[in-house]
Amino acid sequence: MMEINKKETWFKLHSSCIPVKGKDSSLIYDIEKEQLYPISGDHYELLRLCKTNSLSEIERILLEVSEEELKNFLEQFIEQSLGFYTSNPESFPELDLEWMAPAVITNGIIQLNATSQFDFENLVEQFQNLGCDAIQVRLEADFEWSTIEKLMLAFETTRIKLVDWIMPYRPSLDKEVLLELMGRYKRVGLLRIYGSPKNDCWESKDGKVTILLLQKDIRLDPSEIITPDRLTVNSYVFMEAQRHNVGLNRKVCVDAEGNIKNYLSHAKSWGNITEVTLKEVVNRPDFQEKWFVTNDKIERCCECSFRYCCVSNSDVEFQQGSYRKVEYCTL
Q1: What does the angle CA 38 – CA 43 – CA 46 come to, to the nearest 5 degrees?
Q2: Model pTM?
Q3: Distance (Å, whole) CA 304 – CA 27
């Protein structure tokens, strides 16, 4: 155990290691290593004291905590490379958590089925003109492969960086053929195939293409399920979550009928893409309102220690003086 001079020394978490208090449990977010470390509520309070007090001052404040107990408590964070001792705490300021993005829209979803009538290529161009970086395309019909390739080709000359695809399972799927197809288009990211007989994962030999086969059929059960593996721990999301609803911020979706929404499952439509442009819709202050309803403002979510890594797309309603989610998770 490291010897410390408690009369001169302070304990500091690394600036990328940020404690977050929850009602039932608390966490340290390591947004550089992209990991979560559970801590108790009491430990959160002790770490909070470390931000404004030296070790000797903490001992005077917490008479019931012995020097040995304090050292043992802090040593675990040293061993996990989460913190350090210093005699110059002012030399280690906290991170600036200001989040900025130049694009009007950063992400979006396009849903297609056999009856969709809107101009797909024109819609892709509209997303590009709004500065969109990432799009998810949801296919809810068994389109011919030639049609799917045409849809993929629509992104190839755009500035959109990443396109994830979701499509239904069909018995004729050939693993190698599908991996080759996905690898041919540089914008393609992850492909999810739903309604599969079993959960599975296919990867290309170079690791550049990943195909997930999922048993759940989103056509039969479109409900969103937030599980620990869907939590996103990184600096970008953590910073965005301080002032924005990460699941809805800078997002616009177009469903299979052409309705423009904040998210596909939301009841509210802001018009149809055959009658109004994306730009006209997303620049409306009332469309953007939910971008700023952070988890800190939402009942139950404000008490959850996962609130800065949760990317739930649930609609948000203002009822009886407070914001509430239409769909709450079970975390």
Answers
A1: 145
A2: 0.91
A3: 10
